[in-house]
Amino acid sequence: MIIQVAVGKPIPGKIELFNQFILMNLDLASQCGVPSNVKVSSYGTPGVEISTMFSFSSWEELGSKTDEMRQHQKFKEIMDFGGKTEAFGEAVDSYVASLLPGFDSDSKFSEGPILATVWRPLQGKLGEMLGTFQKGKEIHEKHGAKVRVFSIIGGRYAGNFAYNMSFSDNTAYGKCMSAMVEDHTRFMLEVDAEPNSEQVAQFMLDKPVIVG
């Protein structure tokens, strides 16, 4: 699973134009058979960030579908809209996330909230970090989370890894976070004793409220 992501935020007073631009992109993806999703940051970012995501089964599909979308008439309409309309949004980030083997049992978009933690491996410790992720996965999934790990290519977190805990809804998120406190604390003490990575960022993504 490969996810291509564009992150932006609306200029105050221009939310309707910003929404329209996102919906045009989602329509293009739909017409070309590309799964899409939108998530909004609910905490962990300086302000509200809106992520528009496209999903591909492989790098080959990403390449072929990108060509297909760029040759579509809708793509020209989107470019014209963005170029001829007054400014309505600010770009925050763009990147590609590649789902790692061993964390790919459910290769589809998460419908509910996602707690994303970005990690940078210490030099020479990448293998150990991935092993730690596997241990974390066992603990967190036991308490109700769905764990997936992505390699991040491009953007502000390029070269890092996203450890994502997904939930069906916020009620499930709250129950999991409460239930895992003791196990998670013991796990973090073990990791801290022999560190193999450093935390770069942590934020929550959720279903859009102000978009759509």
Describe the model:
- It is a single chain.
- This protein has 212 residues and is an alpha+beta fold.
- The protein has 2 domains: 2-96, Alpha-Beta Plaits (2-Layer Sandwich); 109-206, Alpha-Beta Plaits, CATH 3.30.70.100.
- Helix content is 38%, strand content 32%.
- The protein has 6 helices and 8 strands.
- An 8-stranded antiparallel barrel has the order 1-3-2-8-5-7-6-4.
- Strand 6 (146-153) and strand 7 (161-166) form a beta hairpin.
- Helix 4 packs antiparallel against helix 6 (181-193).
- The radius of gyration is 18 Å and the shape is globular.
- The two termini are 25 Å apart.
- The model has no long low-confidence stretch (mean pLDDT 92).
Low-confidence stretches: none
**Rounded average pLDDT:** 92
Q: Specify the CATH class of the largest domain.
A: Alpha Beta
The second-level CATH architecture of the largest domain is 2-Layer Sandwich
Condensed summary:
Helices cover 38% and strands 32% of the residues.
Blueprint of the fold:
Elements lengths: L1 E9 L4 H17 L4 E8 L6 E7 L2 H12 L2 H12 L4 E11 L14 E8 L4 H17 L3 E8 L7 E6 L3 H10 L1 H13 L3 E10 L6
Antiparallel strand pairs: 1-3, 1-4, 2-3, 2-8, 4-6, 5-7, 5-8, 6-7
Helix pairs in contact: 1-3, 4-6
Provide keyphrases for this structure.
single chain, 212 residues, alpha+beta, Alpha-Beta Plaits
